[in-house]
Structures are given as structure tokens and as C-alpha cells.
Amino acid sequence: MSGVIQQFPVEKEYEKNPDISPEDVRKLREWMKTQPHLPEQHWTDLDLIITYHCCDCSPEVTKQVIDLHITARTLFTSFFKDRVIDQKIIDTLKVALLTPLSTPTVHGYRALYCRLLDGDAKKFNFTDIIRSVMLVFDLWQYEEGTWPGFVIIIDMNMATLSHIAKLDLMTIRQTLYFLQECMLVKLKEVHFLNAPPFMDKLMMVLKPFMKNSLLRILQIHEINSQVIYKYVPKEAFPRDCGGSYKDFKTLRDETIRRLESNREFFKQENLRRVNESLRRNGETKTIEDIFGIQGSFKKLDID
User: Fold this and answer.
1) In angstroms, rounded to a whole number, what is the distance separating the alpha carbons of residues 221 and 66?
2) pLDDT recorded at residue 286
């Protein structure tokens, strides 16, 4: 799980997704070339395939999501600006485990498992955790390409009211906006495990920023509930929480080594931002513009 990773081969994507053709990708690239504010030269064919796939192969939706996705990465600076694997990131990954599970879910989706490793609320910084999640996610998707579905698992074991008190609304708002509007996945399920008695307080903070489509796929599981195994095989989980996968410490260390080994990937990813000065008609985008957009370009994928 360490070493420099390789991009998932584009030719294998066409095998995985026979409804996507090189011609589809060519047309999207030609469109990007007409948008001078977008970093077309830094977007690969794999990026175009991933976006087209998660937008259900709609060219118009894909174009809107490409622009919105790159614009959000440019404006949400606390998550995406000057991404480097520094000591702050390494310290964050010692506080929270953010790891892809190697075994697919019952429905064949890929799952990201998140939980605290250190319960000291003084070490908890929600913005740094989301920044780290995005680092882990980008590298993982680069290596694996498209997925039929994406699942987020948040294990609330070790979480306290002191952690909830440290959540900041702007980070929550930007995280949920990115997840719901322009993250390049088909989001199928969100699970909160080992929900504490104060889970209602957390939901009061989150709900104002959640659409009904997200609420419908969110499930809250009581402490030690077995219901999660209807969605994710028990053996998929780390052995510290009853599964057959690697232990927390091994997963933590592998994640850190994986990011450290791929610093060049993020150096290149930093180039994939909007140049607002080149946006047509001089209509530069701001945070206020982003949050003022009504409706949803990329709908959550609901079965």
C-alpha cells in the first residue's frame, strides 16, 4: 500500500463501462478547450471518464459538473489550496483513521471508513480531517477509476460532545456542498456507526445543509448494531472493530506512507484550478456565487 501509484488505465475503463466511448471523451475535451478558465491541459481522459460516468453519461450535466467541481476546488481553499503532505496532515492521520475498505459492499460499491483513533478533542480539527479525507480519496480514485457506487462509513466510536462543539459551520457547509453537488462519485449510502446519545445534536447541525436526497440514503446505527452487515460484509471492517481486515495501526501507517510516497501527485493536482481572470464575460465566481446556485447539477444517485 506504499510506493508511487499508477493511474487506472483508460482502456480498462472502456471495458468496465461499454456505454462510454473514446468519442464521448474526445467531445468533452474539445468542449474544455473552449473554456479558457478551465485547466484542460491538466485533466486526463480518466478524469473525463470518471465525471461522465458519475453524471450518467449526460454530456450537458458533465460539462456543468466539471466547471462546478474545479471551481469548488479553487474556492474551497481550506481543503484544496497548496496541497502538500506536511506534518499537519500526518498528525491529522494519527488522530483519525481515513481508509478505503478493500472488500466491496454487498452491492459492489466501494466504501471509505472513517473514525477517530485519538479521543482527545483538543487534537481534533475538523477542517484538517476533511482536507486529509480529500487527499486520501483523490489518490484512491486515481488508482481505481470509476466505481458503480460510493459509500461513506463514519464510526462514531470515541466521538464526544466536545468534538461536536469543535465543528465549524463553514467547513460543514462546504463539505456537504461538495459531496452533494460536484464530488465525482455515485453516492449510494452514508452510514453513521455506533451512534452516541447526542447523535440528534450532530444531526441538528448537519441537516440544514443536507438535501432530502442525501437524507434518504443516510442511516444511523446504534452502538453495536449488526444492521450495517446487511450493507457491508463484516469481514470488510478492520479487525479492531470485529472484521477481518488489517488493524487500525497498520491501516493508519499505510495511509501515511501512501500519501508521503505520492507527493508529486498532489503537486500536479494543485495545477488543476480555475483561472477566474479568463472566465468568459468577466463573470468571476466567488464563494457567495457558489452557494447561491439553486438546484443541483449532479443529482445524488438513488436506487
Assistant:
1) 34
2) 83
Cell of 49: 471518464
Interhelix angle 169-177/199-206, nearest 10 degrees: 70
Cell of 118: 485519538
Rounded to 5°, angle at Cα 46 from 42 and 51 = 95
Query: For the residues of 183-216, what is the DSSP string, one character each?
Result: -SS-EEEEEEEEE-TTHHHHHHHHGGG--HHHHH
Residues 6+ apart with CB under 8 A from 110: 100, 101, 104, 144, 147, 149, 150, 151
Q: Given pLDDT bands bounded at 50, 70 and 90, which one contains residue 297?
A: very low
Could you say which DSSP state residue 290 is in? H
The phi, psi pair for 21, rounded to 5°, reads -120, 160
**Which residues touch 177 (CB under 8 Å, ≥6 apart)?**
72, 209, 290, 291
The answer to whether the beta carbons of residues 32 and 38 sit under 8 Å apart is yes
pLDDT tens digit sequence for 228-268 = 999 999 999 999 999 999 999 999 999 999 999 999 999 99
Map 52-88 to HEC letters.
HHHCCCCHHHHHHHHHHHHHHHHHCHHHHCCCCCCHH
β-partners of residue 110 are 150
Q: Partners of 187 in the beta sheet? A: 150
CA torsion angle 275 81 298 211 (round to 10): -130
pLDDT exceeds cutoff 60 at 146? yes
Q: What contacts 24+ positions apart, CB below 8 Å, involve 173-177?
A: 173/209, 173/291, 174/72, 174/76, 174/78, 174/79, 175/79, 175/130, 176/206, 176/209, 176/210, 176/214, 177/72, 177/209, 177/290, 177/291
Q: Which residues contact 77 (CB under 8 A, 6 or more apart)?
A: none
